[in-house]
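Practice record 12: protein with flavin-adenine dinucleotide.
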Amino acid sequence: MELIQDTGWAGQPATVEQPLRGDTDCEVVVIGGGGGGMSAALRLAEQGVDVVLLEAKTLGWGATSRNAGYITNSIAADPELLGLFLDRERLRSLYRYAENSVHFAEKAIARHGIDCGYRREGIVMAAVSKGQLRHARRNAKVLAEAGSSATFVEGREAGLPEGFLGGLREGVGGTLNPGEFVLGLRAATIAAGVRVHECTPALDVVDNGAGVTVETPSGRVRARKALLTTNAYGTTLSITPKHLSTPVWTSLVETEPVAPERLDEIGWTSRAPMVTLHMIIENYRVTPRGTIVFGTRRVQAGRHPLPDRTPAPHVVDDLVRGFRERFPGLRDIQPRRAWGGWIGMSSTWLPVAGAASDNVLYSLACNGHGFAQAQYVGHLLAEHLAGAQLDEDLAAIWHGRKRFRRSLVGGTALYAGWLADRASDRLSALTK
Ligand SMILES: Cc1cc2nc3c(=O)[nH]c(=O)nc-3n(C[C@H](O)[C@H](O)[C@H](O)COP(=O)(O)OP(=O)(O)OC[C@H]3O[C@@H](n4cnc5c(N)ncnc54)[C@H](O)[C@@H]3O)c2cc1C
C-alpha cells in the first residue's frame, strides 16, 4: 500500500505564490492559509482591507486538504458528555454556531463555484453495538433539546450496511473532496486581491501596542492587526496562548474502487457517510471515485516541531483490521493508499477563538470537526477585525484573553481511549 505525505484527494497547486522577500506594510496580516486563514483573508479583501496572507507551504496544505471530507455540525465531544458540563443555553448556542458553519461552507462552495463533488447527504453517527445504539438515543434527546436538526434513525430504514444498527442522522451537511475544495478556495483567495505569500513561515509575531511585526525567513510584515490561523502548529509561535492546543496525528485509508452492487449486497443502499459512536471515532464513506475512505480510530499525539510525515504502518494495519471487522462482506477489497494530517485539539475540546494580545486574534475551531467551522470562524473574525460587533456565533466560542488549562490529551490518554474502544468492541461481540 502507498503511504502518501501530501493529501491523497488531489494534486498540489501547479504554481506557487511568491514567497515574501523584503519588508512590507498592510492593515491585517493573516498567518496560516488553511480553510480558516483563506476564508478570513478573502472576507477582509472583499471589505477593501489591505491584507497579507502568510502560508508556510502552499494554501490548504494542512488539515483542510487532508481531512475525511465531512461537512458536519458535530462538535468535538460527545453530545451527552457536553450536556453534563454545559447548560442548555450554552449548548444551544454551540449547536446553532455549528449548523451555521455548515450553511456557510455550503454557500462558499456555491459562491466561488468550487467543483469538489459536494453531496448534501447528511451524516450518520452510527452505532455498531446495542450499547452504542442506546447511547445514540440518549444523544438524540440531548441534541433535540439543544435545537439541533439531528434525528434518531434505525439501520435498515437509513440504508446502513449490515452491522450498523442505527444512529443519529445529522439534518445538515454531507461530503466533498477536500483536496479539490482547497484548490478552488485558493484560486478565489488569490483572485480576491489578497497578497498571498506561500512558502513563507512566520517565525515570530510581536505586538508592540501600536501594531504587529511578523518575522519571516526573508522579510518582515508590519500590520495594524494580525490573525493566527495556524491550527495544530500554533504553539510554535510564542505569542500563541499557552496550552491552546495539542497536535494530534490522524490517518485515513482509501480502498480500491468497489462495485456499486457490492455496496447494495451489504445493505449500504443509502451510501450514507458514517461516523461511529466510539470514544475515538471511526469514519467510513464512499467517494465519487467509487472507493471507500476510512480513518481515525487510532490517533497519535505530536510534539513540536511537527514533522511532515506519512501514517504509521501499525496504525494503518489497525484501521484496515477495523474496516474488515465492520464490513465482513467486503473482506476481499484491498486498501490502496493512506495519508493523514495534524489536527489541533483545544484543551477544552471545544472550538475556540479569542485574543492573544491587543492586536492579535486567534482561531482554533477544529478538534477534528473543523472543516466548515474553521472557515466560518475565519470569516466572522475578519468581520470583527474590520470593525463589526462580535457576532453571536463568534460569541458562542469566544475565549477573550483568558488562559487555558493544560490539556489532558496526550499519547497515553489517546492509547487508553483506543484500548477502551477495542474492549467495548470485544464485549459487544461476546454478547451478540
Ligand atoms: C485526517 C483528518 C481528517 C479530518 N476529517 C474531518 C472531517 O471529515 N470533517 C471536519 O469537519 N473536519 C475534519 N478534520 C479537521 C479539519 O480538517 C480541520 O479542523 C480544519 O481543516 C482546520 O482548518 P484550519 O484552517 O484551522 O487549519 P489547517 O488547514 O491545518 O491550516 C493551517 C495552516 O497554517 C499553516 N501554518 C502553520 N504554522 C504556520 C506559520 N508559522 N506560518 C505560516 N503558516 C503556518 C500550515 O501550513 C497550514 O496550511 C480532519 C482532519 C484530519 C487531519
